[in-house]
Inverse folding.
């Protein structure tokens, strides 16, 4: 399974922000859209990722307030990225190593979408459920042996 399979099911709705946008405005957008991350774009290029992890760290550092910080001061300026062709096992490994919950999907320099750890987990569970159903159907339809008798359970 590849990242493109997740995006096909999930869709490619993207929420982005500018690095020069006030953090408070970015947080309002995240709350309004009920999302956990924003891709930070500058002149069409991916320059960072803003997630609740960075926001919480900034709020704690600022004594419990968002203050007047800009997204640029808080964002992860070196986010993990993948391509639509990246394999699911590789995505899981990358996300676990970096404790990343969100990963932008980039094809050359074009942002294609974002996959979350939830998206990856759901895809794995759905795939395993399908495989389970296929195996159970195969076992139920097990062919009779040469004598014409079904195997004993």
């Amino acid at each position: 399974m590849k990242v493109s399979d997740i995006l096909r099911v999930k869709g490619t709705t993207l929420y982005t922000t500018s690095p020069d946008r006030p953090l408070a405005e970015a947080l309002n957008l995240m709350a309004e859209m009920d999302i956990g991350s924003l891709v930070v774009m500058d002149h069409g290029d991916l320059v960072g990722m803003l997630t609740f992890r960075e926001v919480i760290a900034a709020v704690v550092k600022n004594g419990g307030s968002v203050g007047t910080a800009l997204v640029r001061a808080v964002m992860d300026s070196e986010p993990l990225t993948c391509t639509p062709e990246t394999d699911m096992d590789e995505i899981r490994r990358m996300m676990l190593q970096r404790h990343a919950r969100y990963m932008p999907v980039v094809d050359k320099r074009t942002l294609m979408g974002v996959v979350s750890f939830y998206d990856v987990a759901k895809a794995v569970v759905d795939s395993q459920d399908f495989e389970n159903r296929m195996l159970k159907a195969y076992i139920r339809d097990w062919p009779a042996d040469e004598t014409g008798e079904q195997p004993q359970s």
Observations:
- The helical segments are 3-10, 23-33, 52-61, 71-74, 88-98, 117-140.
